[in-house]
Amino acid sequence: MKLLCELTDDIKITEDIIDLGEGKSRKDMYIEGITLQGEVKNKNNRVYPKAVLSEAIKKHIDEFMKVGRAVGELNHPVEKSSEINPDRISHRFVEVKEDGNNFITKAMVLNTTHGTQVKNLISGGVKMGISSRGFGDVKESGNAKVVQSLYLVSLGDIVTNPSAPNAFVTAVMEKTEWIWENGILVGKDLSEELDEYRDALDKSTQKDRDDVAIDLFKQYLSTISENYQNVDESMKTDIESLKPDKIERKGKAIKITWNSEKDPKKLKAELEKALSSSKDKIKWMGASNENGKAVAEIDLK
Protein backbone atom coordinates (compact mmCIF):
# COMPACT_ATOMS: atom_id res chain seq x y z
CA MET A 1 0.00 0.00 0.00
CA LYS A 2 1.09 3.58 -0.66
CA LEU A 3 0.57 6.78 1.30
CA LEU A 4 -1.95 8.89 -0.66
CA CYS A 5 -2.36 12.62 0.05
CA GLU A 6 -4.64 14.92 -1.96
CA LEU A 7 -4.56 18.69 -1.42
CA THR A 8 -7.32 21.24 -1.84
CA ASP A 9 -6.76 24.92 -1.07
CA ASP A 10 -10.25 26.01 -2.16
CA ILE A 11 -11.77 26.16 1.31
CA LYS A 12 -14.35 28.30 3.07
CA ILE A 13 -13.93 29.67 6.60
CA THR A 14 -17.06 30.20 8.68
CA GLU A 15 -17.70 31.14 12.30
CA ASP A 16 -20.66 30.32 14.52
CA ILE A 17 -21.52 32.27 17.67
CA ILE A 18 -22.78 29.91 20.37
CA ASP A 19 -24.92 31.45 23.09
CA LEU A 20 -23.84 29.98 26.44
CA GLY A 21 -26.39 31.95 28.49
CA GLU A 22 -25.85 34.56 31.18
CA GLY A 23 -24.47 36.95 28.59
CA LYS A 24 -21.67 34.58 27.60
CA SER A 25 -20.92 33.23 24.15
CA ARG A 26 -18.38 31.12 22.28
CA LYS A 27 -17.13 31.56 18.73
CA ASP A 28 -16.50 28.32 16.80
CA MET A 29 -14.47 28.35 13.59
CA TYR A 30 -15.13 25.86 10.78
CA ILE A 31 -13.19 24.94 7.63
CA GLU A 32 -15.20 23.55 4.72
CA GLY A 33 -14.17 22.35 1.28
CA ILE A 34 -14.04 19.54 -1.27
CA THR A 35 -11.66 17.05 0.31
CA LEU A 36 -11.89 14.18 -2.18
CA GLN A 37 -13.07 13.98 -5.78
CA GLY A 38 -14.09 10.86 -7.67
CA GLU A 39 -13.95 9.86 -11.34
CA VAL A 40 -11.54 12.63 -12.35
CA LYS A 41 -7.75 12.67 -12.71
CA ASN A 42 -6.30 14.99 -10.10
CA LYS A 43 -3.01 16.88 -10.12
CA ASN A 44 -1.28 13.86 -8.58
CA ASN A 45 -2.28 11.91 -11.70
CA ARG A 46 -4.59 9.70 -9.65
CA VAL A 47 -8.19 8.74 -10.27
CA TYR A 48 -10.46 7.67 -7.41
CA PRO A 49 -13.44 5.60 -8.58
CA LYS A 50 -16.59 6.86 -6.86
CA ALA A 51 -17.26 3.41 -5.38
CA VAL A 52 -13.81 3.28 -3.77
CA LEU A 53 -14.25 6.74 -2.23
CA SER A 54 -17.76 6.00 -1.00
CA GLU A 55 -16.71 2.80 0.72
CA ALA A 56 -13.66 4.39 2.41
CA ILE A 57 -15.59 7.47 3.58
CA LYS A 58 -18.52 5.42 4.90
CA LYS A 59 -16.08 3.26 6.88
CA HIS A 60 -14.37 6.38 8.27
CA ILE A 61 -17.71 7.92 9.25
CA ASP A 62 -18.90 4.73 10.98
CA GLU A 63 -15.64 4.03 12.82
CA PHE A 64 -14.46 7.56 13.60
CA MET A 65 -16.87 10.43 12.94
CA LYS A 66 -19.87 8.89 14.72
CA VAL A 67 -17.80 8.53 17.90
CA GLY A 68 -16.11 11.94 17.68
CA ARG A 69 -12.72 10.63 16.53
CA ALA A 70 -12.59 11.93 12.95
CA VAL A 71 -9.76 14.39 13.47
CA GLY A 72 -6.78 15.85 11.65
CA GLU A 73 -3.45 17.47 12.40
CA LEU A 74 -1.75 20.75 11.55
CA ASN A 75 0.42 19.70 8.58
CA HIS A 76 1.13 16.12 7.61
CA PRO A 77 3.37 14.33 10.12
CA VAL A 78 6.83 13.30 8.95
CA GLU A 79 6.79 10.27 11.22
CA LYS A 80 4.00 7.74 11.82
CA SER A 81 1.84 8.81 8.90
CA SER A 82 -0.44 5.86 9.57
CA GLU A 83 -1.50 7.25 12.96
CA ILE A 84 -3.09 10.35 14.47
CA ASN A 85 -0.85 12.05 17.02
CA PRO A 86 -3.11 13.41 19.82
CA ASP A 87 -0.58 16.16 20.57
CA ARG A 88 -0.91 17.51 17.01
CA ILE A 89 -4.70 17.44 16.57
CA SER A 90 -6.05 20.77 15.34
CA HIS A 91 -9.58 20.05 14.13
CA ARG A 92 -12.48 17.58 14.22
CA PHE A 93 -14.64 16.69 11.25
CA VAL A 94 -18.34 17.11 11.94
CA GLU A 95 -19.92 16.60 8.52
CA VAL A 96 -19.37 14.96 5.13
CA LYS A 97 -21.67 15.86 2.23
CA GLU A 98 -21.79 14.04 -1.09
CA ASP A 99 -22.11 16.36 -4.08
CA GLY A 100 -22.08 14.39 -7.31
CA ASN A 101 -18.62 12.80 -7.45
CA ASN A 102 -17.28 15.19 -4.80
CA PHE A 103 -17.16 14.83 -1.03
CA ILE A 104 -17.35 18.09 0.91
CA THR A 105 -16.14 18.01 4.50
CA LYS A 106 -16.71 20.43 7.35
CA ALA A 107 -14.32 20.53 10.29
CA MET A 108 -14.42 22.50 13.54
CA VAL A 109 -11.10 24.05 14.54
CA LEU A 110 -10.41 23.02 18.13
CA ASN A 111 -9.01 24.97 21.06
CA THR A 112 -5.93 22.74 21.19
CA THR A 113 -2.39 24.07 20.86
CA HIS A 114 -2.33 23.40 17.12
CA GLY A 115 -5.97 24.38 16.67
CA THR A 116 -5.25 27.76 18.24
CA GLN A 117 -2.31 28.13 15.85
CA VAL A 118 -4.66 27.48 12.93
CA LYS A 119 -7.11 30.13 14.18
CA ASN A 120 -4.35 32.69 14.64
CA LEU A 121 -2.90 31.98 11.19
CA ILE A 122 -6.30 32.30 9.51
CA SER A 123 -7.06 35.49 11.44
CA GLY A 124 -3.70 36.81 10.26
CA GLY A 125 -4.59 36.20 6.61
CA VAL A 126 -2.57 33.03 6.03
CA LYS A 127 -4.02 30.86 3.24
CA MET A 128 -4.70 27.33 4.44
CA GLY A 129 -5.49 24.09 2.68
CA ILE A 130 -6.83 20.65 3.53
CA SER A 131 -4.94 17.54 2.46
CA SER A 132 -6.47 14.10 2.94
CA ARG A 133 -4.26 11.32 4.33
CA GLY A 134 -4.82 7.69 3.51
CA PHE A 135 -3.31 4.47 2.23
CA GLY A 136 -4.22 2.50 -0.83
CA ASP A 137 -3.23 0.39 -3.78
CA VAL A 138 -3.01 1.95 -7.23
CA LYS A 139 -2.93 0.47 -10.71
CA GLU A 140 -1.57 2.08 -13.86
CA SER A 141 -4.27 2.61 -16.45
CA GLY A 142 -3.42 4.60 -19.55
CA ASN A 143 -1.86 7.86 -18.43
CA ALA A 144 -3.28 7.77 -14.90
CA LYS A 145 -3.04 5.79 -11.68
CA VAL A 146 -6.39 4.34 -10.64
CA VAL A 147 -6.86 3.82 -6.90
CA GLN A 148 -8.00 0.25 -6.24
CA SER A 149 -8.53 0.47 -2.48
CA LEU A 150 -8.39 3.21 0.14
CA TYR A 151 -8.07 3.40 3.91
CA LEU A 152 -8.44 6.92 5.35
CA VAL A 153 -6.33 7.86 8.35
CA SER A 154 -7.79 11.37 8.25
CA LEU A 155 -10.30 13.10 6.00
CA GLY A 156 -7.73 15.88 5.97
CA ASP A 157 -4.83 17.57 7.71
CA ILE A 158 -4.75 21.37 7.64
CA VAL A 159 -1.67 22.41 5.69
CA THR A 160 -0.09 25.85 5.77
CA ASN A 161 2.50 25.63 3.03
CA PRO A 162 1.77 23.42 0.02
CA SER A 163 5.06 24.56 -1.55
CA ALA A 164 7.90 22.68 -3.21
CA PRO A 165 9.69 21.51 -0.02
CA ASN A 166 6.58 19.99 1.56
CA ALA A 167 5.44 18.59 -1.76
CA PHE A 168 8.84 16.90 -2.11
CA VAL A 169 8.65 15.40 1.37
CA THR A 170 5.14 14.11 0.68
CA ALA A 171 6.34 12.63 -2.61
CA VAL A 172 9.11 10.75 -0.81
CA MET A 173 6.68 9.49 1.84
CA GLU A 174 4.35 8.27 -0.91
CA LYS A 175 7.16 6.02 -2.21
CA THR A 176 7.21 4.08 1.06
CA GLU A 177 5.67 0.64 1.05
CA TRP A 178 3.13 0.10 3.86
CA ILE A 179 1.62 -3.19 4.97
CA TRP A 180 -0.93 -4.28 7.57
CA GLU A 181 0.64 -6.11 10.51
CA ASN A 182 -1.78 -7.29 13.17
CA GLY A 183 -4.17 -4.45 12.40
CA ILE A 184 -1.42 -1.78 12.29
CA LEU A 185 -0.06 -0.06 9.19
CA VAL A 186 3.72 -0.39 9.29
CA GLY A 187 6.13 1.18 6.84
CA LYS A 188 9.82 1.71 6.41
CA ASP A 189 10.79 4.70 8.57
CA LEU A 190 12.39 7.47 6.49
CA SER A 191 12.32 10.24 9.11
CA GLU A 192 16.09 10.77 9.25
CA GLU A 193 16.38 11.03 5.47
CA LEU A 194 13.36 13.35 5.31
CA ASP A 195 14.81 15.67 7.96
CA GLU A 196 18.03 15.95 5.92
CA TYR A 197 16.11 16.62 2.69
CA ARG A 198 13.86 19.21 4.34
CA ASP A 199 16.88 20.99 5.86
CA ALA A 200 18.66 21.12 2.50
CA LEU A 201 15.57 22.52 0.80
CA ASP A 202 14.98 25.11 3.51
CA LYS A 203 18.55 26.37 3.10
CA SER A 204 18.32 26.59 -0.68
CA THR A 205 17.24 29.74 -2.48
CA GLN A 206 13.98 29.88 -4.41
CA LYS A 207 16.00 30.16 -7.62
CA ASP A 208 17.86 26.86 -7.26
CA ARG A 209 15.27 24.97 -5.19
CA ASP A 210 14.07 22.84 -8.13
CA ASP A 211 17.65 21.74 -8.91
CA VAL A 212 18.26 20.93 -5.25
CA ALA A 213 15.05 18.89 -5.09
CA ILE A 214 16.05 16.91 -8.18
CA ASP A 215 19.51 16.18 -6.77
CA LEU A 216 18.03 15.10 -3.44
CA PHE A 217 15.51 12.86 -5.14
CA LYS A 218 18.30 11.18 -7.12
CA GLN A 219 20.18 10.70 -3.85
CA TYR A 220 17.04 9.23 -2.27
CA LEU A 221 16.57 6.74 -5.10
CA SER A 222 20.19 5.60 -4.89
CA THR A 223 20.22 5.12 -1.12
CA ILE A 224 16.73 3.90 -0.20
CA SER A 225 17.63 0.22 -0.50
CA GLU A 226 20.97 0.76 1.26
CA ASN A 227 19.22 2.08 4.38
CA TYR A 228 17.90 -1.38 5.11
CA GLN A 229 20.72 -3.64 4.02
CA ASN A 230 21.86 -4.22 7.61
CA VAL A 231 18.71 -6.16 8.37
CA ASP A 232 18.90 -9.14 6.04
CA GLU A 233 16.29 -11.81 5.63
CA SER A 234 17.95 -14.14 8.12
CA MET A 235 17.81 -11.52 10.89
CA LYS A 236 14.17 -10.76 10.09
CA THR A 237 13.36 -14.45 10.23
CA ASP A 238 15.16 -14.78 13.58
CA ILE A 239 13.17 -11.87 15.04
CA GLU A 240 9.88 -13.25 13.71
CA SER A 241 10.62 -16.57 15.43
CA LEU A 242 9.81 -14.78 18.71
CA LYS A 243 6.35 -13.95 17.33
CA PRO A 244 6.30 -10.17 17.86
CA ASP A 245 3.21 -8.10 17.03
CA LYS A 246 5.12 -5.27 15.41
CA ILE A 247 8.60 -4.57 14.01
CA GLU A 248 9.68 -1.01 13.25
CA ARG A 249 12.87 0.41 11.72
CA LYS A 250 14.29 3.91 12.26
CA GLY A 251 17.73 4.50 10.85
CA LYS A 252 19.93 1.86 12.48
CA ALA A 253 17.48 1.23 15.31
CA ILE A 254 14.96 -1.60 15.39
CA LYS A 255 12.00 -1.58 17.75
CA ILE A 256 10.13 -4.83 18.38
CA THR A 257 6.79 -4.85 20.21
CA TRP A 258 4.64 -7.56 21.80
CA ASN A 259 1.10 -6.68 22.88
CA SER A 260 1.58 -8.14 26.37
CA GLU A 261 4.21 -7.67 29.06
CA LYS A 262 7.19 -10.03 29.38
CA ASP A 263 10.07 -10.43 31.80
CA PRO A 264 12.69 -8.00 30.36
CA LYS A 265 15.68 -10.17 31.34
CA LYS A 266 14.17 -13.30 29.82
CA LEU A 267 13.10 -11.41 26.71
CA LYS A 268 16.60 -9.99 26.20
CA ALA A 269 18.10 -13.45 26.66
CA GLU A 270 15.65 -14.94 24.14
CA LEU A 271 16.47 -12.16 21.68
CA GLU A 272 20.23 -12.62 22.08
CA LYS A 273 19.82 -16.35 21.48
CA ALA A 274 17.61 -15.87 18.43
CA LEU A 275 20.03 -13.33 16.92
CA SER A 276 23.25 -15.13 17.86
CA SER A 277 24.16 -15.59 14.18
CA SER A 278 23.86 -11.81 13.63
CA LYS A 279 25.64 -10.63 16.80
CA ASP A 280 28.48 -9.08 14.78
CA LYS A 281 25.93 -6.64 13.26
CA ILE A 282 24.46 -5.59 16.62
CA LYS A 283 25.89 -2.80 18.77
CA TRP A 284 23.36 -2.88 21.63
CA MET A 285 20.01 -4.34 22.59
CA GLY A 286 17.64 -3.94 25.51
CA ALA A 287 14.16 -4.90 26.66
CA SER A 288 11.49 -3.30 28.85
CA ASN A 289 7.73 -3.01 29.41
CA GLU A 290 5.89 0.12 28.26
CA ASN A 291 2.16 0.77 28.69
CA GLY A 292 1.34 -2.88 29.11
CA LYS A 293 3.48 -4.00 26.16
CA ALA A 294 6.89 -5.65 25.95
CA VAL A 295 9.39 -3.68 23.88
CA ALA A 296 12.84 -4.73 22.68
CA GLU A 297 15.22 -2.31 21.00
CA ILE A 298 18.27 -3.06 18.88
CA ASP A 299 20.96 -0.68 17.65
CA LEU A 300 22.89 -1.86 14.60
CA LYS A 301 26.53 -1.15 13.91
Task: Describe the overall structure.
The protein has a 5-stranded antiparallel β-sheet. The protein has a 4-stranded mixed β-sheet with strand order 1-8-9-4. The chain folds into 2 domains: about 1-160, no CATH class; about 230-300. The model is unreliable at about 160-170 and about 225-230 (pLDDT under 50). Helix 4 runs antiparallel to helix 5 (about 210-225). The protein has helices at about 50-65, 115-125, 165-175, 190-205, 210-225, 235-240, 265-275; strands at about 1-10, 10-20, 25-35, 45, 70-75, 90-100, 100-110, 130-140, 145-160, 180, 185, 245-250, 255-260, 280-290, 295-300. With about 300 residues, the protein is of the alpha+beta class. The protein has 7 helices and 15 strands. The chain is globular and about 65 Å long. The longest helix has 15 residues, at about 210-225.
Low-confidence stretches: 162-172, 224-231
Pattern of helices and strands: EEEEHEEEHEEHEEHHHEEHEE
Give the % helix. 25-40%
Q: Describe the global form.
A: globular
Q: Which whole number gives the mean pLDDT?
A: 80
Q: What spatial order of strands do you see in the largest sheet?
A: 2-3-7-6-5
**Terminal Cα span:** 30 Å
Whole-number count of domains: 2
Gyration radius, in Å: 22 Å
Strand content: 35-45%
How is this structure best summarized?
The strands form four sheets. Strands 2-3-7-6-5 form a five-stranded antiparallel β-sheet. A four-stranded mixed β-sheet has the order 1-8-9-4. The protein has a four-stranded antiparallel β-sheet with strand order 12-13-15-14, covered by helices on one side. It folds into two domains: 2-161, no CATH class; 232-300.
